[in-house]
Hints:
This protein has about 110 residues and is an alpha+beta fold. It has one helix and eight strands. It has a single domain (about 25-105), classed as Lipocalin (Beta Barrel).
Amino acid sequence: MTGRGIRYPLAAFALFLSCSSASAGSISMICENPRREYRVTFNEDTRAFSADDTDYRVLAVEMTQERYVVAGLTVDQGPTFRAHFRPYQKLEWYTDNQLYQTDGCR
């Protein structure tokens, strides 16, 4: 067997690894409310959403070319949220189906 027979399978395997790791991941942003800054993160593989150390339940993800929004529930019967990652970055908080706070993010 020549070196050429070994090189191509290794190159194909390396390409596979780079493509599979590029498709996986998380997206995050720093947001600020009147009291403090906090980091929100959405793991695209596990569909897990967290703000600092608090995990929230994800209900829906809207991902199009124009928009990337994650919606879900907070803890202890608290408000719902909509995290906008694209085209702008902000986090909206809702209670009783009414928007009550918008936190700017970067």
